[in-house]
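The methods section describes the discrete structure representation at length, but only in general terms. Since the whole study asks how a given chain folds, the encoding of that fold should be made plain. An entry of this sort, consisting of the sequence and the corresponding backbone structure tokens, reads as follows:

. . .
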Amino acid sequence: LFLSASCARDPRSEADRAFEELTARFLDRYLEFHPEEATALGDHRFDSLLTNFSVDAITARSRLYRAYRDTVRGIRVETLSPRHMIDYDILRHAIETELYAIEELREWEWNPLQYDVGAVLHQLIARGSASDENRMRSLTGRLRRIPQSLENARRNLNAPPVLHLSLIHISEPT
């Protein structure tokens, strides 16, 4: 009875509630896929991770974003509140941008800066809001993932521009 009474007072439409849930799920997955961005935004659930540029991870992101794109395309926008109509456009654009980056731009194949971990390590070192212990735990997690990140760079990079190579150097294993 309490649950039904509390739902009855919820002024949001079913379409708005469903859209908010979809958006929350998308943002959670997006931040999990892009842990450095999560850290920069103040979400510290993924601080010990680095973006995974393995072919399997990139393929999984593409599949997931396509599924979200298809779901968003199926939403009847006119059923959303005016505020969520704007959010709908923002979400649709964000998903399309991610798909473009993965499927067309494909920076992981030519931009070695995608694999530069200096700034993302600095994020954790300079973050004053967490205890030293938490920052060190997160930093250690990211440091442990650097060898795999460099291996992904060696596998994925194909004739990167000289300018990019002058900014970052990924040496061949000896």
User: Anything to note?
Assistant: Helices lie at 2-8, 14-33, 35-41, 55-73, 82-105, 118-126, 132-156, 162-167.
